[in-house]
Automatic annotation (TrEMBL):
Domain of life: Bacteria
Organism expressing this protein natively: Laceyella sediminis
Protein name as it appears in the record: Uncharacterized protein
Length: 143
């Protein structure tokens, strides 16, 4: 059996002792502020959509299903749920899912190269075609 030390390589900032644990303190409102005002108080891993999907997002089945249903509905498929209630244990990905929805709603087709295994590129909206309404604890997307 291969040990965890052989299969998992720590990030460079862990090895250098410069790791900032606040990078894992995600919040939705700074992401929305970033899109609305061009500035944010949260780590760039969350505001840079390509980096968020490439480096900080593991495509779980739950994430893929939620994004597929949300953006299928926005694309006009009335057979998928219009309302989603995200329920997971603490640290289970609710905020991460909302941040993913926000990035896709704002940037849509610009993210085609970064979300291939997460969401069918045919479901990506045109950039600027989705209105995003949100605050500190929730987000809604719609045409």
């Amino acid at each position: 059996m291969i040990s965890v030390l052989q299969t998992c390589q720590p990030r460079p900032e862990i090895l250098a002792g410069t790791f900032n644990p606040e990078v894992f303190t995600a919040s939705l409102s700074p992401i929305i502020d970033f899109y609305r005002k061009g500035r944010s108080s949260i780590d760039h891993i969350y505001t840079n959509a390509q980096q968020f999907f490439d480096e900080a997002t593991y495509p779980t089945q739950g994430l893929k299903t939620t994004l597929t249903e949300v953006f299928s509905r926005i694309a006009g498929d009335m057979t998928v749920p219009a309302i989603h209630r995200l329920e997971t244990a603490f640290g289970g990905g609710k905020t991460h899912t909302l941040i993913a929805c926000t990035h896709i709603a704002y940037q849509g087709k610009k993210l085609e190269g970064s979300i291939g295994e997460i969401l069918d590129p045919n479901l990506l909206p045109a950039p600027g075609s989705v209105s995003v309404v949100g605050g500190s604890s929730n987000t809604c997307a719609g045409n």
